[in-house]
Every structure is written in structure tokens, then in C-alpha cells.
Amino acid sequence: MILFPNAKINIGLAVTEKRSDGYHNIESVFVPVPICDTLEIIPSKEFQFKTFGLTIEGKAEHNLCIKAYKLLKNDFDLPPVEIVLFKNIPMGAGLGGGSSDAAYTLIALNKIFDLKLTDSQLVTYASKTGSDCSFFIYNTPCFAEQKGEKMTPVSVNLTNYYIKLIKTSVHISTADAYKNIFPHKTTISFKKIVEEKPMEEWKNYLYNDFETQAFSNYPILKSIKEKLYNEGALYASMTGSGSAIYGIFDSIPAIDKSIDFCQIAKL
Question: Which one of 9, 57, 117, 136 counts the least CB within 10 Å of its CB?
Fold first, then answer.
């Protein structure tokens, strides 16, 4: 079975509270983006995990796809499989690529071996692999709270818009990014802004708490965001804890061939 795990962007991202378990509560609107990895899972005589495309940092045994497989294997008599992952979604970008790969691994195994798990049950497994993995089970715009696993549907239609996504060589560790965050309660509802305000007004209300430190440490990221607005983006932001920057346009934007990673997709 071949699937195409997609990226996500954050439209607004506030870190609202440091939790007793060491994690943070957030508020953000998650939106799926059709920029994808390729994931193939087939039955095999022995378990194998192979990767191609962009380099994946860390040891293979720590990959979230393997974690997802092991979670299901603990509860079901799963036979060995071969997992082949072609990475196109950059790492350390705030795009949720690893989480998406894990969620799609759960979805694929559920279908291949007819485990008959409901979406709700898959979400339970997904939440054990990562805070935003659950989002990719439903894969529709939502307002995320707590660690990112509490989701409420968001009514926003982006089908006539285009996204321009830029990732430079800058890599931002999520753990390092959180060290410079001072949690605070929001005074506005990101969900309400996205649902009720015209997109060109979002920049007046929405913010990403991680931008301040990221832009200070890496001025090129701030320059990219400004450039996207100069090119006509209705809304532009860093996604997640960085370092990818995106702009949303009402017409097809030009691609920047000089950038390490620049992709354009229709939302």
C-alpha cells in the first residue's frame, strides 16, 4: 500500500501554559497542506525500514513510523512489514512531517491487516506517538488546544488559495525553541479570527510566539516573511516552532529557485 503523508501549517500559534509533565499547552489552527512524503508498507518476511530522499536525523529505530508499528503490534498479532519512506517534507521545519508519517503508518496498517480500528481509536494510538500526530488522522482544518491533541473543527475554506512554502538551511530544534518561550494566555480566539475575519486581516490578530526569538537569531527568516508579503501574500507566518515560512496567496506565486526548499501547492 502506498500513501502520501502530507504536511501541516499553523495559522497562529500561542504557547499558553507550562504543564506539570514538562510539556506546554498551545492554541493554534492546524491546516493540512498538499506537500507530501511517500510511504509504502508491504508484508515482508522480516521487519525492514528504509528511507530515501531528504536526510532523516537520528537513529532509525527512533523513527515515529517504527514507533507506530510497535504500538499496534503490542495489541495485535501483526506480521513483519517493510516500510519504505521517501522524505520530501523537511525536518526541523514545523511542518509535522514525522507526525504525519506516523499517523499514515497507523492508517495503512489498519487497512492492510483489517484491524477495524475506528478513527477515534486511531487517534488514541496517534496521540501516543506525538502531540500533533492525532491531527493527521482526521486531516481537516481544526483548532488545537492542550498539547495539540484536543481538536475542534474549524470552518475555513482555503480551496481557492495557493501556499508558497520556504525552508532555508536553518534548523530549529523544538526543544531549544521552547526554552525561550514565556507562556501567556491568549486574549483573542484564533478560531474565531480565522472563521470570521477576511484573510488579509489575519496578520492584525494572529501571531506565532516562536517568531520573536527565531527572527532574532536568524534574520533571514524575518526577511523571507517580509518578502512574501511584498509578493502579495494575504497572510504569511512561520509555522510551528520553525523554521519553515509560508505565504498564502489568491493567485499562483512565483517560485524562488535560489532557495534551498521552495514549493508551491494549491490548498
Answer: 57
Active-site annotation holder among 87, 132, 164, 167 = 132
Give the DSSP letter string of 44-82.
-SS-EEEEEES---S-GGG-HHHHHHHHHHHHS-PPPEE
Catalytic residue check, 8: yes
When pLDDT is cut at 50, 70 and 90, the band that residue 166 belongs to is: very high
* Catalytic residue flag (residue 192): no
Cell of 98: 514525522
Task: Write out the three cell numbers for 190.
Answer: 484564533
The architecture that CATH gives domain 2-153 is 2-Layer Sandwich (3.30)
Q: Hey, do 2-153 and 162-266 end up sharing a CATH topology, with the first three levels equal?
A: no
266 DSSP β-pair partners: 162
- Domain range annotation of the chain: 2-153, 162-266
Classify the C-alpha dihedral 181-216-143-99 as positive or negative: negative
Strand order in the sheet with 150-153: 6-18, 24-36, 142-145, 150-153
| Marked catalytic residue, from 8, 87, 167, 225 | 8
**Strand ranges, E, within the chain:** 2-3, 6-18, 24-36, 38-43, 48-53, 81-87, 142-145, 150-153, 162-167, 235-238, 245-249, 261-266
**Alpha-carbon separation of residue 159 from 135, 137, 193 (angstroms):** 19, 20, 18
| pLDDT tens-digit map of 211-222 | 999 999 999 999
